[in-house]
């Protein structure tokens, strides 16, 4: 079973790929492989951030139900 790589590890891997490619002394085939891996890592990181944003954008109210954060703010201001 594959080990789960953390967001931070993926970010470090992407930074290394970018640094390697910026130096320009990577053979073409290796550069293409690194670029492809970098794009895949970037997509994973974007999805992780999107999932985190979606999770943080929800609030659990007293009734135990999740509500979008914006709706909770507007409901609270109406109750004032």
DSSP strand count: 2
Overall geometry: elongated
Strand order across the largest sheet: 1-2
Task: Please state roughly what percent of the residues sit in beta strands, choosing from under 5%, 5-15%, 15-25%, 25-35%, 35-45% or over 45%.
Answer: 5-15%
Outline the biggest β-sheet: 2 strands, antiparallel
Descriptive tags:
single chain; 80 residues; mainly alpha; two-stranded antiparallel ribbon; 2 strands; 70% helix; elongated
Element layout with pairings:
Elements lengths: L6 H17 L4 H29 L1 E3 L5 E3 H10 L2
Antiparallel strand pairs: 1-2
Helix pairs in contact: 1-2
Q: How does this structure look, described?
A:
There is one protein chain. By secondary structure, the chain is mainly α. The protein is built from 3 helices and 2 strands; from the N terminus they run ααββα. The protein has a two-stranded antiparallel sheet with strand order 1-2. A hairpin with a 5-residue loop joins strand 1 and strand 2. It is elongated, with a radius of gyration of 20 Å.
């Amino acid at each position: 079973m594959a080990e789960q790589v953390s967001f931070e590890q993926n970010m470090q891997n992407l930074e290394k790929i970018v640094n390697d490619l910026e130096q320009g002394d990577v053979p073409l085939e290796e550069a293409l492989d690194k670029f492809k891996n970098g794009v895949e890592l970037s997509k994973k990181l974007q999805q992780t951030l999107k999932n985190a944003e979606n999770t943080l954008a929800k609030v659990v109210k007293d009734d135990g139900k999740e509500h979008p954060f914006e709706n909770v703010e507007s409901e609270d201001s109406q109750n004032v």
